[in-house]
Amino acid sequence: MFHKSSVLAATVCFVAAGAMAQSTGKPTDPQIGDIAYTAGQADIGTAILALKKTDNKAVESFAEDMIRDHLAVNKKLMALLHKLKMTPEASDTSKTIYRNASIKQEELWKFDKAYAENEVAYHEAVNGALESTLIPSAQDGELKSLLETDLKLFKEHQKHAEHLVSELK
């Protein structure tokens, strides 16, 4: 079960993803782990919010996919960090994700389309951050490999969200 604070923190959506792209300095592996986990939690929380609000079967199905996939990704990430004896480390980026969680929450309660559009923007930002900063900065080969695998899945999420937006117009 998810705590209300986790749901609130998770609704940051693309506003927080923008923080990932704007972060200055090269993140460390523990910071990358925390950023990746926090971003996953953000999408899980947004999907939970969508499930509470939607009557649209396509949006419901997409939100369920987001919950399933991001829970699995975060579970793998935490297992890898545990194996590497690496403790996730908060950074300005992960703190921004958490701090800005309430910015999008009200908007997302309004429309299925808002959720789908947000998912497009969110995945664009996350995928961009993975490609431009997180993957190139990761020093551990296993962490880098996991992030590269996740990027493939998240690109599919973006395509799915784009398709959903076109259906909801």
Would you kindly provide a written description of the structure presented here, covering whatever features stand out?
- The radius of gyration is 15 Å and the shape is elongated.
- The protein has eight helices and no strands.
- It has helices at 4-10, 13-22, 29-53, 57-83, 92-99, 101-108, 112-137, 141-168.
- The protein has a single domain (4-168), classed as Ferritin (Up-down Bundle), CATH 1.20.1260.10.
- Residues 1-19 have low confidence and may be disordered.
- It has 169 residues and is an all-alpha fold.
Layout of SSEs?
Layout: H1 4-10, H2 13-22, H3 29-53, H4 57-83, H5 92-99, H6 101-108, H7 112-137, H8 141-168
Helix pairs in contact: 1-3, 2-3, 2-5, 2-7, 3-4, 3-5, 3-7, 4-8, 7-8
Give unreliable regions as ranges.
Answer: 1-19
Which CATH first-tier class would you pick?
Answer: Mainly Alpha
Supply Rg. Answer: 15 Å
Helix/strand/pairing category:
mainly alpha
Question: CATH superfamily name?
Answer: Ferritin, core subunit, four-helix bundle
Find the CATH topology: Ferritin
Anisotropy-based shape:
elongated
Proportion of residues in extended strands: under 5%
In whole angstroms, the N-to-C terminal distance is 33 Å
What is the N-to-C order of secondary-structure elements (H for helix, E for strand)?
HHHHHHHH
Number of domains: 1
Descriptors for this entry?
mainly alpha; Ferritin
Outline of the structure:
The protein is built from 8 helices and no strands. With 169 residues, it is mainly alpha-helical.
